[in-house]
Amino acid sequence: MTLAWISIAALVIAVGLSCTTTINVGILSLTLALLVGVYLGGMSPAAVLEGFPTDLLITLVGVTLLFSIAESNGTLARVTARAVRLCRGQVGLLPVMFFVLGLVIATIGAGATPTSALLAPPAMAVASRAGIPLLVMAVMAGNGALAGTLSPFAPTGIVANGVMARIGLGGVEWQTYAYNAFAHALVGIGGFLVLGGLRLFTRREGAAAGERREGVPVDSAEPDAGEMTTPHWLTLAGIVALIAGVAIFGVNVGMMALVVSTLLILLRAVDEGEAIHGMPWGVILMVTGVSVLIALLQETKGMDLFTAGLARISTPESIAPIVAFGTGVISVYSSTSGVVLPAFLPMAPELAERVGGLPPLPIAWSMNIGASLVDLSSLSTVGALFLAGAPPGSDTRSLFNGLLVWGLSMSVVGAALCWILFR
After folding, report:
1. pLDDT (tens digit, 9 = 90+) per residue, 33-66?
2. How far apart, in whole angstroms, are the C-alpha atoms of residue 227 and residue 219?
3. What is the Cα–Cα distance from 380 to 378, expressed in whole angstroms?
4. Total count of domains within the chain
């Protein structure tokens, strides 16, 4: 029990210092995980490092390399200009467009993480070039992807619906999807408005002349579309192949992105050194290092401390917001589909019985919504992908903190929303 509390304290220290200092939180988290695990937990360094997220690393490396190629050879610049023109110069429509794209791609089977891996780099590039605050774009595009994450065809939806079926709550797959999609649409639109999104509709084709945002100059003129040459068409074809492979054929997004990137390099569609140099290595280290500390927290049973008190503090009126808040807080630092939903959803029937014989479905839906709403946190994979997609010259520290605050606040918003929906 003591070790569990110490591991929680290590996470609190890492998150606190990440918000108040310039140290890379990944380096700090990795160090704390090794110190706590080896010297207090009696684990070997190899055992601690078993928590290293190899799959996430491959996803981040593969996707960021592919879109670094697209950025460095000018493909993204040309696609960005054409996206702005597609919206007829209405800058405010661009985040809306990426929300819809995210919702559609995630719903048809890609799920939130692959969809975010696909959309984050171009969405953030479009935001940078069109003068849209990166946090606004991340909130809209990220919530679009998360809105489709509980589709019966998506990985997280398959996990959630499978667990619910095993505990006698099957047959409501599309209702589960609809509640989650509604929640993300609501907070996405709300965030867009609160963060000043309406002002974007008063601008056309970029920001005012001479304005600088996050140190990146923004021109008032319409972005130059430029001519699409063979390298650009090859890169665009590779991106389309990646989307098709992931969304239609279920290919691993990281593996597919690495294959496509390698082919583009072999076809001389880009300068390999320039593309590799443009990858966000600091962000990749940040995300993977934090994941090791989270894995240690799970190993030491620190996560169990969050769940033990739920039944003791719940009433029929408060159970929905309490479980939404509890799953939300844990999901900020953990895997929604791999840890939170498999651990919490089986508790729904028993919790419903203990607090007065309530229907268990609203409790299960509250868990799904609460766990999913926070997944745009910079400590979660989806938020990390948008952070990694920030173009060179962006203030990633500010974006990291903004996404972290957003994710944490969603635990409260999710609780309030579930109280309204399921009371």
Report:
1. 999 999 999 999 999 999 898 888 888 888 889 9
2. 19
3. 5
4. 2
